[in-house]
Amino acid sequence: TGGSTHLVSLGDLLDRGGESRKVLELLMRLEKEAQLAGGRVHVILGNHEIMNLTGDLRYVSAAEYDAFAGEEDADTRRSAFARFTLHAQSNLIVAERPFLEREDPERAFAGKFPPGFFAHRNAFGLDGRYGQWLLRQSQVLVINRTVFVHGGLSHEVAGLGLDEMNQRYDGELFELMRLRQDLQNRSCVYPEQDLSDAVAEASGSDCDADLVMRFAQLAEGALFSDLSPTWFRGGALCHVLLEEQNLSRILAVLDSRRMVVGHSTTADHRVQHRFTGRLIRMDTGMLRSYYRGQPSALVIEGDKLHVVYLTDAPPREVIPAVDSRITSRFENEEAFLRNGAISGASSNSHRNGSGEDSAGGVLVGVAVRVKWRGEEISARFVPLSSKAIKHEVAAYALDRLLNLDLVPTTVAREHSGKRGVLIGLSDTLVTETERLERQLVRPNWCGDGNIYQLMYAYDALIKNNARNLDNMAYDIRDWRLVITEHNTSFGRGTRLPVYLRQTEHVLPKGFADRMKNLTEDQLRMTLGELLNKSEINGLMKRRELLLNDWKIAG
User: Fold this and answer.
1) Does the pLDDT at position 266 exceed 60?
2) Can you tell me whether residue 291 is helix, strand or coil?
3) CA 345, CA 216: separation in Å to the nearest integer?
């Protein structure tokens, strides 16, 4: 029915339930039908395809194995059971009682290797039905100047052409699987072992040392790196000013207009784009039972693009832009904070401008709710002096002028007879103090550079000496950095804030480009009612210092 249409799947067809095999069979059938009709079906490998091929089975469900149970080879299963019981008997001694005396070995074996496990491994092997088919697919594809890739393309491949990218990553995948099959034929590794166990088994065997060394290298190589095409999230989640140069270089080398990615599910389960349409995020949480999202498709017809949703949405719509959504988010939040009724203030005030602190790890101000037009959002109210109010609002206005998206929405308000600022801070934020106490891992989605470089540069620009672990926070939904407490900023001199004197002075190129275009007239127009002449002059002097003395990277 598609005629000459090209259908592209962005990968991750596996590991989300018992019908993965049906998905593969459907695409394999459509691939043949499309060719007969003059079209094509392309499947881009995702990280879960590569995991299944190479033996990382963390996400394979018992239901997926069950789909292969009728094809299980009894001899293979018996041999694996013998190895399992031998290993258990020699290693798993509890309270001096042998493993076989304290647990039913068949039940334990079936729990670890459900019926269908070995047939599944065979099917995804080098010579298996799905292994052979998946190894014919690519990790990066370009059609009509559109790049399709599961995760994204990092700075590691920025200078490579399409063939070079696929030769590197597809080549390593095929070599790893060939080596594993070779080692398995020599009884150096076994089909029931995951990749890490297989490496350990081979390393302790008498097999050819060169083969084992290469197998171990590939198992820990670029294929599984966070910078690989199937794992990279920088284009989808890294700050625009940190990732924009990388995307531009890659698109230029590949002579392409845009890149389409999956892997990173959009928060609202709708298709989004970034970098003024040059990167499109297509992972809308399609499997409702797992992600509670919806299936979606991007339709490209010449120069026209639109999105089709299967459920709960109009059938066709123009792609909504993340860039404009950020602007819209700030505009909507500003309207809430300026016009809404404030209620529900709590007593956990913290750094309210008077120098009084409460326990560490608490966000600035007092928690409130703001109601407007039948809706409600979270915020915090901070009582401040008139000058401090202007500085807080100026920090937000300058952030918006530079499109940084680090400083939360901030407006001047009165509450309970006190003047101050109302700041849009969600309930899903954790401070750096709390993150450290709870030992939460903050992912760095960027392949090159990090979000702190933007914070350092911004604090240097506004001369903020008040940065500490309690006024930098993260939205744990996507780990977006949020910075607060700028009421003592905007001094006159060019001396760096104390905390920056020991940091590496790096200015991300995206931010440097914004600062090069920043003029005194713009500052006066945007900040003239908030900062005096000497404060604006100080901003311009520090701008020159950053552009001339800091290393511009990217």
Assistant:
1) yes
2) helix
3) 57
> For residues 376 and 341, what is the distance between their CA atoms, to the nearest angstrom?
9
For 123-162, where are the E strands, in sequence order?
Answer: 140-143, 146-149
Encoding tokens for residue 429? Answer: 């934020």
Q: Per-residue DSSP letters for 110-122?
A: HHHS-TTHHHHHH
Rounded Cα distance between 510 and 189, Å, is: 49
Q: Determine the residue type at 431.
A: T
User: Between 73 and 349, where is the model more confident?
Assistant: 73
53: its two tokens: 């091929």
Number of residues that this document lists for the chain: 554
Question: pLDDT tens, 494-510?
Answer: 998 999 988 999 999 99
Cα 27 from Cα 34, distance rounded (Å) = 10
Instruction: Give φ, ψ of 250 to 5 degrees.
Output: -65, -45
Q: What is the pLDDT of residue 323?
A: 63
Residue-wise pLDDT tens digits, 10-24 = 999 999 888 999 999
- Residue 317's identity, in one-letter code, is E
- Which pair of tokens denotes residue 121? 């491994």
How far apart CA 262 and CA 239 sit, in angstroms, is: 17
